[in-house]
Write a structure and sequence with these properties.
Strand content of chain A: under 5%
CATH architecture of one domain in chain A: 3-Layer(aba) Sandwich
Number of helices of chain A: 25
Largest interface: A-B, 96 and 91 residues
Largest sheet of chain B: 4 strands, antiparallel
Strand order of the largest sheet of chain B: 4-3-6-7
Number of strands of chain A: 7
Distance between the termini of chain B: 80 Å
Distance between the termini of chain A: 107 Å
Helix content of chain B: 40-55%
Oligomer: heterodimer
Structural class of chain A: mainly alpha
Radius of gyration of chain A: 28 Å
Helix content of chain A: 55-70%
Order of helices and strands of chain B: HHHHHHEEEEEEE
CATH class of one domain in chain A: Alpha Beta
Strand order of the largest sheet of chain A: 4-3-5-7-6
Largest sheet of chain A: 5 strands, mixed
CATH topology of one domain in chain A: Rossmann fold
Structural class of chain B: alpha+beta
Shape of chain A: globular
Number of domains of chain B: 2
Radius of gyration of chain B: 32 Å
Number of strands of chain B: 7
Strand content of chain B: 15-25%
Shape of chain B: elongated
Chain lengths: 668, 255
């Protein structure tokens, strides 16, 4: 059937329209491909002086020191101060980070200067942490490791049980080095630990720079990647604190650096494996369980990539030997210590994955971002900075992902008509693939039980993220250009990434002066609680069994040297004994079973819900989170005969339940 | 081939000299210097020097030296634990020993002429203005830390008075009562002692300056085995209507 002339004209118009749409779509796809760098050949632009120069390093050091001074002033500010503490703090951060970021991105900067700038940035981030608690440890994890270190000093022996973190004495590298320094210099554990953290952070950033430089052959790209790495939320706070993961990751990067040297230096290959990589992997295995497993997993993928790539036999053997060492040391130590990790990590991992699946199926976040459990929320501008940092990270990943593949030499090749992938750099390919885990860690942050897991994975995944984003920044964005605006804009973006990560790490609104908050870890550490804990040591003596909340148990275990009843160690939940309105048979049974001597009751818990999400520890009865406890519930022991009220400072009361429980046990 | 071995001698000598820090009269600065070097640098440097024919110099060499020192310290710690010697002297022997032995191996390898030196790392020349800026920056950072410490010491969020009561001996009725003033100003306290609901003594006024403590030892006028409650009530600044703090224990036993 022939079509009418009008129908033919319509068809022609439609065909032309479709063609035009297809052409437009094809053009759009091509543009997106160009934007993302798909198929682009990566070109390295070093643009640095061959000779080492101080350049802007002294001036920027001076500016960074003023930045630190502003942060110290922010901590000392009060509510009437002008400018406000928050403004001083943010100005300090900008003064420290922006000049360093801009200078790192600047063309024609010597390698020497870039290394110096990175070290200053790492040192400054650590010092920001020190300035918030210059007299003693304040982080929850810091107290847990302090207990282990203190036990080593007191007993001159390792592996003394730690009720607060039973796994800590089994991975004692951090505490061994701290107590070694303490023994040799007579410094306190706090001072020794702080020195160790400062030095290990510098070594870490130096090793990371050398590692990136070794795999990319560019000091500029390596420096940019290192700076972007500092944008992971663990870098400014968690890894700058006295905790074992911060040291273990140093050993991991040193081992990776050793592998790159073993790969490139054929003459000393086995010396690098034996003297550097092996010992670093062994030290990592005795430092931190999760880091050891992640390190071994990354080496496993590297070995697979090496075997699949065109490498020499000796190089393959070296990488396989490294992998064997990593597996042998991490599993060997785990088995030697009686496999404490499954019990420690298993439940939270299981619950985290469950929460994640529940969130995916219901499409509703379990945990509201930017909202603490006690209802505290960051102001809108702080939330914007954090979201901006995350958005810029995602954008950088999108723009750098395919360029990183290009840098890895990834291309499609054909052999006898069969297509297969070929690449030149196993490390770059591995780190680029690692960034695919970034969305998962973001998803973990929306769950109640696994947000910490997402946080802990960040430092490892950011090794890839740093490299991938740097591939875009140091590649097409900065390129050969010597225009200042490009370096300034790149530096500004990099500074936002790090400042955003500091805001995220803060875990709540950034407000000054920093005041006491209920169960807010470092915000709950203040002289009165410390004084009460010290009183227990002075007047009661050490090693009494105490029931206390999450914050005060750390103070009691460290300043007071008391034994703490925990669900993790004793498998007895005593939270209801403290919070219930009446002391019933169940509560009495819990106290009796745990052989409790004293109850440490902090009346400030009645003021608010716990900021950290728990009053005591994970797994506690969730009904106690409905509202803060009633004062009458905490003081119910006043009404019980045979319970002594030993200590009272108006906020903290210590009850002596020894006689009461002895009578209960005797059935009188 | 002539090789320079002065670095080996220096490192070994510093490690040996560190053993002097075991002397009780060793100065604080000496302890700090030798302690930091032994834990963070010397063992790693010596091991690197002994292991590689071509000594690793420059930034990478320094990073590896510090990293290896941390590893050496960690494993020396395990060795000392099993040798029951986790003491200052044990640490000196272990870390000094590792350094000296590694230096010895490096010396022997150099004696055979196998060592070839890398090109030493070039350091850029520091101009006066640059040096001044670095020094000023260091001074500001040190001052900032001191300032932060002072601010924390001066800051007192909670003002309070501690009252406590303890039995000195499980079998006797001797009791110690204590008061500590951590208020923002000096205070006057009155203490009322009550046994089984009857006031048996009143003490005070006790004037305590900020930071000052006061203790009272008292023997309870009851026979051992009594079940009565012995209570101490504290009144502050002459306000006898409001009990400021209360503590008690069961008379007869401390629990």
């Amino acid at each position: 059937m022939s079509q009418s002339p009008t129908a033919c004209a319509d068809t022609r118009v439609l065909t032309r329209k479709y063609r035009w749409t297809w052409a437009w779509c094809a053009e759009l796809v091509a543009w997106v491909g160009i934007l993302l760098g798909i198929g682009e050949r990566f070109r390295r632009f070093e643009l640095s002086h061959g000779n080492p120069e101080w350049g802007g390093l002294p001036g920027i050091s001076l500016i960074a020191s003023f930045g630190l001074l502003l942060i110290a002033l922010a901590h000392g500010s009060d509510q009437e101060s002008w400018p406000s503490g928050t403004a001083l703090f943010c100005a300090g951060l900008v003064l420290i980070l922006l000049p360093i970021a801009v200078r790192i991105a600047w063309p024609s900067v010597s390698r020497f200067e870039r290394i110096g700038l990175l070290l200053i940035a790492a040192l400054s981030l650590c010092l920001i942490n020190v300035l918030s608690a210059p007299l003693g440890f304040s982080g929850f994890d810091e107290f847990l490791h302090w207990i282990t270190a203190d036990d080593i000093m007191r007993h001159n022996a390792l592996f003394t049980p730690n009720q607060m973190l039973p796994i800590s004495p089994l991975y004692p590298a951090l505490e061994i080095i701290t107590t070694a320094l303490s023994n040799l210099t007579n410094l306190s554990i706090f001072a020794s630990g702080t020195i160790l953290i400062l030095i290990s952070r510098m070594v870490f950033i130096g090793a990371l720079f050398l590692f990136f430089e070794a795999i990319t052959s560019s000091s500029r790209l390596a420096a940019v990647a290192c700076f972007i790495y500092m944008g992971n939320a663990s870098m400014p706070l968690f890894h700058a604190s006295f905790a074992y993961e911060g040291l273990a990751i140093v050993f991991m990067i040193l081992a990776f650096l050793g592998v790159t040297r073993a790969e490139s230096d054929a003459a000393n290959r086995w010396m690098y494996v034996l003297v550097l990589t092996g010992p670093f992997l062994a030290a990592m295995a005795v430092s931190h369980h999760t880091t050891a497993f992640i390190g071994a997993s990354l080496l496993l993928v590297l070995t697979c990539l090496t075997l699949l790539s065109r490498s020499t036999l000796k190089r393959r053997l070296a990488v396989m030997a490294v992998l064997a060492t990593a597996i042998a040391t991490s599993w060997g130590w785990l088995k030697l210590m009686g496999n404490p990790v499954t019990e420690y990590i298993g439940p939270s991992l299981e619950q985290g994955v469950g929460d994640l699946l529940a969130m995916i199926t219901s499409m509703m976040p379990v945990r509201k971002p930017f909202l603490a459990t006690d209802g505290a929320t960051a102001p809108i501008w702080q939330r914007l900075v954090m979201m901006c940092a995350i958005a810029l990270t995602c954008l950088g990943l999108a723009l750098g992902f395919f360029r990183a593949f290009s840098l890895a030499g990834l291309r499609m090749a054909h052999d006898r008509g069969l297509p297969f992938l070929r690449w030149t750099s196993n490390w770059i390919l591995l780190l680029t693939l690692l960034t695919l885990a970034f969305p998962i860690t973001l998803a973990f942050r929306f769950t109640d039980s696994a947000w910490e897991l997402g946080n802990r994975l960040g430092p490892f995944i950011y090794i890839g993220i740093g490299l991938v984003i740097a591939c875009f920044v140091a590649g097409p964005w900065l390129g050969r250009s010597s225009q200042p605006w490009r370096a300034v804009s790149a530096g500004a973006v990099m500074a936002i990434l790090v400042i955003g990560s500091i805001f995220i790490a803060w875990g709540g609104p950034i407000d000054f002066p920093r005041r006491y908050k209920v169960i807010a870890d470092s915000l709950s550490i203040e002289p009165m609680g410390i004084g009460a804990a010290e009183w227990t040591l002075q007047w009661l003596g050490s090693d009494h069994r105490f029931v206390a909340d999450r914050v005060n148990r750390t103070l009691l275990a460290t300043y007071g040297r008391q034994e703490i009843v925990t669900t993790l160690n004793d498998q007895i939940d005593t939270s209801s004994a403290l919070f219930s309105q009446h002391l019933g048979p169940q509560e009495i049974h819990a106290l009796k079973s745990a052989h409790v001597d004293f109850l440490f009751v902090d009346m400030r818990m009645t003021q608010a819900l716990p900021r950290m999400g728990v009053y005591f520890e994970r797994g506690e009865d969730w009904t106690i989170h409905a509202a803060p406890p009633e004062p009458a519930a905490l003081l119910k022991f006043n009404r019980i005969a045979q319970v002594g009220r030993t200590f009272d400072n108006g906020y903290i009361v210590i009850f002596d339940v020894r006689k009461f429980l002895r009578r209960e046990r005797d059935g009188r | 081939m002539a090789v320079r071995r002065s670095d080996i001698i220096i490192v070994a000598l510093v490690a040996l000299m560190a053993s002097l820090s075991a002397v009780p009269s060793a100065s604080w600065a000496f302890l700090m210097l030798t302690g930091l070097l032994l834990v963070f640098y010397l063992p790693g440097y010596a091991i690197m020097r002994a292991a590689f024919l071509k000594p690793r110099t420059g930034f990478a060499g320094a990073i590896f030296a510090v990293g290896l020192s941390l590893v050496a310290t960690t494993f020396c710690g395990f060795a000392l634990h099993y040798a029951n010697a986790l003491t200052p002297v044990g640490w000196l022997i272990a870390l000094g020993g590792v350094t000296v032995v590694a230096c010895g191996i490096a010396w022997l390898r150099d004696s055979r002429g196998v060592s070839r030196r890398n090109k030493p790392m070039e350091y850029p020349r520091l101009r006066f203005g640059q040096a001044a800026m670095l020094v000023v920056a260091a001074v500001i950072v040190a001052g900032t830390i001191m300032l932060a410490r002072h601010q924390v010491i001066d800051k007192q969020e909670f003002a309070y008075t501690e009252l406590w009561m303890l039995s000195r001996d499980k079998s006797s009725n001797d009791v110690t009562i204590g008061i500590s003033n951590v208020e923002r100003s000096d205070s006057l306290y009155d203490l009322e002692l009550i046994l089984d609901g009857r006031t048996i003594a009143v003490r005070g006024p006790v004037h305590l300056r900020v930071g000052q403590s006061w203790t009272l030892d008292i023997s309870l006028p009851v026979i051992a085995g009594s079940e009565g409650r012995f209570e101490a009530r504290l009144f502050k600044d002459g306000d006898n209507q409001r009990v400021y703090r209360r503590v008690w224990l069961q008379a007869g036993t401390a629990g």
